[in-house]
């Protein structure tokens, strides 16, 4: 499979934190989804990893922006989560 080139504006969002600890976000992890709270933010190589707590579980998440994702198993829906932040 050919690797897809990411637009520069998407790459920039993957490199800098888009949320803060304590922010509510919509996440998806292996088919399960919900609203969780960011508990920790870490940087690995060129991408940001967010720990999202939901109930008694925590999930390591990347960002999902449109059709682009920075993580394979779990992701934060960027557009929906930005709307939650403003509400």
Notes on the structure:
- This protein has 87 residues and is an alpha+beta fold.
- Helix content is 20%, strand content 48%.
- It has helices at 8-15, 78-86; strands spanning 24-29, 32-44, 47-54, 57-65, 68-69, 74-77.
- Strands 1-2-3-4-6 form a 5-stranded mixed β-barrel.
- It is globular.
- The model has no long low-confidence stretch (mean pLDDT 88).
How do the helices and strands line up, and which of them pair or pack?
Elements (H helix, E strand, L loop, with lengths): L7 H8 L8 E6 L2 E13 L2 E8 L2 E9 L2 E2 L4 E4 H9 L1
Parallel strand pairs: 4-6
Antiparallel strand pairs: 1-2, 1-6, 2-3, 3-4, 4-5
Remind me, CATH topology?
Answer: SH3 type barrels
Query: What is the average of the pLDDT values?
Result: 88
Specify Rg, calculated over alpha carbons. Answer: 12 Å
SSE topology string: HEEEEEEH
Give the CATH level 1 class: Mainly Beta
Query: Helix content range of the residues, please?
Result: 10-25%
Strand content bin: over 45%
> Could you give the count of β-strands?
6
Specify the CATH architecture. Answer: Roll
Largest sheet: 5 strands, mixed, barrel
Taking strands numbered 1, 2, ... along the chain, how are they ordered across the largest sheet?
A: 1-2-3-4-6
Structural class: alpha+beta
Treating each run of at least 4 consecutive H or I residues as one helix, how many helices? 2
* Whole-number count of domains: 1
- How far apart the termini lie comes to 40 Å
Q: How would you sum up the global shape?
A: globular
Give the oligomeric state: single chain
Catalogue the unreliable spans.
none
């Amino acid at each position: 499979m050919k690797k897809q080139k990411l637009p520069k504006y998407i790459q920039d969002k993957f490199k800098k934190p888009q949320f803060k600890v304590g922010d509510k976000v919509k996440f998806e992890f292996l088919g399960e989804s919900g609203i969780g709270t960011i508990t920790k933010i870490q940087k690995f190589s060129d991408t940001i990893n967010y720990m999202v707590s939901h109930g008694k579980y925590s999930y390591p998440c990347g960002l999902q922006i449109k059709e682009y994702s920075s993580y394979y198993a779990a992701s934060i829906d960027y557009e929906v989560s930005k709307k939650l932040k403003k509400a």
